[in-house]
Amino acid sequence: MSERVWWRDGVVYQVYPRSFADANGDGIGDLEGIRGKLSYLASLGVDALWISPVYPSPMADFGYDVSDYRGIDPLFGDIEAMDALIHDAHGMGLKVILDFVPNHSSDEHPWFRESRRSRDSAFRDWYLWRDPAPDGGPPNNWLSNFGGSAWTFDAPTGQYYLHLFLDKQPDLNWRNPVVREAMYDAMRFWLRRGVDGFRVDVIYHVMKDAGFRDNPPNPDYQPGVDAEAHRQLPVHTADLPEVQGVVAAMRSVVDEFPDRVLIGEIYLPLDRIVAYYGQNLEGANLPFNFLLIGAPWEARFIGGLIERYEAALPKGGWPNWVLGNHDKPRIASRVGDAQARVAAVLLLTLRGTPTMYYGDEIGMHDVAIPFADVRDPFERNEPGKGLGRDPQRTPMRWFPREGAGFTRGIPWLPLGDAVATINVDSQQHEPDSLLTLYRALLALRREHTALSRGAIKVLDCNDAVLVYERFDDTGSFTVALNFSDNDAAMPVSLAGELVLSTYGEGDAQATTLRANEARVLRSPSARSPGQR
Ligand code: NOJ
C-alpha cells in the first residue's frame, strides 16, 4: 500500500477567520483564536485547516481584497502569530492551507496606487486599463460578479480599470510576466514559512480575452432572481484556455516544496471542473468540486452525480467533495437538520477529499440578518435575491453562553438563535449529537483505507435511497442513505456488520431504512478494486 498523502487521504476543514474564535475581544476572530482551537480540530479528526484570507486588507470584501500579499492584517494578528499557528498546527499533525487571491488585489495595494497614478507608471500594465468607448462609457459590456459594470472610470488618467468583483478589487493583468512572477514569489514567501498549500480564489477568472470582446447574453437569465452578472455568459472573462498555463505554473511553484497542495476554486460545469487537473495532471491537485452544493437533494440525482463525476475524472486525478463554504447557504439550512446527518455520512464516505465548513459539524444554520446589519457587499449591491453571504458567516458557537464562547466582545455578525443546543460544548459528550456523528465518521474514515482511498461503486438507487460501496484490498463498506423523511425500502439487500447509523443503533439485517437514516455496514469480505 502506498504512503499516506495528507491531502488525498485526509479531510480539510475551512475556517472563516473572522468568525472562528476571537482571542482579543474585538468581536472579530483572529489567529490567536484559531491557534487556541487547534486541539479541537485535531481531536475532531480533520487533517488540514484552510483559512480564508488574513492578509492586510481594507476588508471591502472581508479579506478578498488584499493590500499586501506578504503580511497579516492587524485585525487578525501579525506574522509571528501566523508562524506560531503553523508551528502549533504542525505539532498536532494538522496542515495549514492559506487562501490565495490572484485575480485581483485591493485598490489600496501599493501596486494599484502606483498603477493609477499615471498612464506612464511602471505599474500601469499590472492592471487592466482601457480607454472609454467612443460614447465615453465603459470599454465593453462586461459585468462585475457583484453587480454593475466591471469597469470603473478613473478621471485623473481618463481610463477605465477592470474589476470582476468590487471596484475596490481591481483585476491584475496576468498577461504581464512581471505580475506573474510577483505573485509566484508571494506564494513562495508563505511556502517557505511552512504553509502546506493554497486554495486559490476564482482561479478560472485570471485570464480575460486579449481583445476585450463583449460577452454574449445569457438566454436563461432570470431577472430579479439571478445575480446581475448572469445576464451574460462569461465566455470572455472565465475559463479561457490560457488559464491552464497559469494553473500549471502555480502547481510548479507549490511543487518546489515537498508535500504541498494546490486547490482551485472553480465554479464551472463538471466537464470544465475536471479540466483543471491539467491534461497530464500538471494542474490543481484538487479542483474544488461544488456539485453537491447546487444539487437537488435526491437519492437518484446524487447517485447519478457521483457516477458522472467519477466517469469524468482524468486517470490519476483524485476527487474531492464540498458541502458548503463561506459563499453558499449552509447545508443544515438547505436540507434541514435530519438530512444534515445524512449529508455528513455522504460527505465523509464518498471517494475524494472532503472539505468541511466550520460549524456544519454542529449543525449551524444560516442566520437571518436584518438589512440594517448587512455587512456583505454582494447583498448590499443586489438586495433581496438571497445572494448575501452574511447568514453563513456567523460566529462559531463554542459554549452555551453570551458570546457563545466566540467572543467576550460584541460579535461582528449576530450569533443567531438556538445557541443553547447548537454549540460544541453541549454536543461534545452527547451520544446522539451531530458533532458525535461527525467524530465517528472522521474516525472511521481515518481508520479504514477502504473509506479514505478505496474505490467506489454506486450499487443501486430508488426514489428515496442511495446505496454505494467503498472497498480496497483491506476491506469493504456499504453505505445506504435515505434522502426522504419516511421509512424506505432498501433497493438492494445488504449484508454485513452495522458500524454506524445516524440513529445510533439498528438491526444490521433490516431491509428498510428509517426516515432520514444513513447507515454504514462493514461487508464480510475484502476485495481489491479490480475484483467484481
Ligand atoms: C470567491 C470567494 O470565495 C468570495 O468570498 C469572494 O468574494 C470572491 N471570490 C472574490 O474574491
Structure in words:
Residues 14-393 form the Glycosyl hydrolase family 13 catalytic domain. Belongs to the glycosyl hydrolase 13 family. InterPro entries: GH, GH13_cat_dom, Glyco_hydro_b, O16G_dom_2. Helix content is 25%, strand content 15%. By secondary structure, it is of the alpha/beta class. It has 3 domains: 6-105 and 176-441, Alpha-Beta Barrel (TIM Barrel), CATH 3.20.20; 110-162, Oligo-1,6-glucosidase, domain 2; 454-523, Golgi alpha-mannosidase II (Immunoglobulin-like, Sandwich), CATH 2.60.40. The strands form 4 sheets. An 8-stranded parallel sheet has the order 9-8-7-3-2-1-11-10. A 5-stranded antiparallel sheet has the order 12-13-14-18-16. Strands 4-6-5 form a 3-stranded antiparallel sheet, with no helix packed on it. Strand 7, helix 7 and strand 8 form a beta-alpha-beta unit. Helix 6 packs parallel to helix 7 and helix 12 runs parallel beside helix 15. It binds 1-deoxynojirimycin. 1-deoxynojirimycin binds at residues 61, 64, 101, 165, 201-202, 265, 326-327.
Q: Biggest sheet, in brief?
A: 8 strands, parallel
Structural class: alpha/beta
- Oligomeric nature of the chains: single chain
Q: Can you identify the CATH class of the largest domain?
A: Alpha Beta
Radius of gyration: 23 Å
